[in-house]
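Worked Example 4.2. Consider the chain below.
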Amino acid sequence: MMRPSLLRTAAQHLRRRDYSSSAAAQPERKVAILGAAGGIGQPLALLMKLNPLVSSLSLYDIAGTPGVTADVSHINTPALVKGFMADDQLAEALQGADVVIIPAGVPRKPGMTRDDLFKINAGIVKGLCTAIAKHCPNALVNMISNPVNSTVPIAAEVFKKAGTFDEKKLFGVTTLDVVRAKTFYAGKANVPVTGVNVPVVGGHAGVTILPLFSQATPASNALSHEDLKALTKRTQDGGTEVVEAKAGKGSATLSMAYAGAVFGDACLKGLNGVPDIVECSFVQSTVTELPFFASKVRLGKNGVEEVIGLGELSAFEKEGLESLKGELLSSIEKGIKFAQEN
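Applying the procedure from the previous section yields the following C-alpha cells:
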C-alpha cells in the first residue's frame, strides 16, 4: 500500500514535470483518443484525465469503451469524460477536438515484423484519418499507431485527398525514443534523469531511430565510444526489449502511454500559447532530403511553429544518419503507396 504522502508526491511530480498546472483563464480543450480501450489507450486515457489543460476527454474504440469511460470518469479531475464505441459514434467522438491521439491498431507480438503490423494497422489508420478529415479537420493529430514511419505518410495522403492537409498539424509521436534515450543515458552517465535531455532524430523503428548523445545535456565525459554505441543500440531496440520481457503478452504500453501523454501535453501548451515548447516528432520536413523526418520541433498555436535542424553531429551519428535513410525512405514510400492504392 502506497502511503498517502507518497501518492501526493507522485501526483505533484506528474503535474510539475509534464503537465501545466494553472487552470485559470485557460481555453477549453477537447482531446480525443482513438483506440482508448487498448493496451496503450487505457493508461493514456488515465494520464490525459490527470492533465489540467484537458477540459473534455473523448474516448473511442471499436469495443470496450464503456468500461474504460466509466472507470476513468470517476477520477476527481476537471476533464469531462465521454465514451464512444463503433463506427457510428466516431463522428461525435471527433467533433470539436483540438488534439486527436491515435494509439489504435494491433500491438507487435514476438516474431511479428513491423511489416506484418503494417498490413493490419495501415487500414485502421486510413479509416480513422478519413473521419478526422471530415469531422475535425483542424485538430492536431498525434500518431502513435505503428509503424509510425508509414502511418504518418498514410495520414498525410488521406488528408491531401480530402483537401484538409496541413503539414503543421500532423505528428508522428516519437517521444518514447526520447524517453528511453534520457533514461538509459542518465543511468550510464550517472546523472539525475529529471535534468537530462537527448534529441532523437530520424524515424521510429530500429536503425531509423538515431539518438544524438553528442548533444545530450548535461554533457558527460564518463562515456566511451563503446558506451555510446551500446546506448544507441539499446534505444533502437527498446521496443523489442519490452516485447521479449513480456514474453508474448504485449508490447510497450505503459511507457508509450506516458510518452504519448507528454507529447499531447506539449501540443496543448503550444496551442495555448506557452512559449518555447520543443519536442522531437516525426513530421513533414526539409531537414534532410526525405519528405518526413523526426527532429526537434517548436510547437505553437498552429501546431508546428518551426522544424529545427539537426545541429552538430558526431562522426558516429553522421554515419548513423546516412545508414538510416534508405530504410526510412522505403517505409515512407510504402505508406504513400498504400494510401494511393486503397
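Residues 27 and 218 are 35 Å apart (CA to CA). The mean pLDDT is 93. Compare this with Example 4.1 before moving on.
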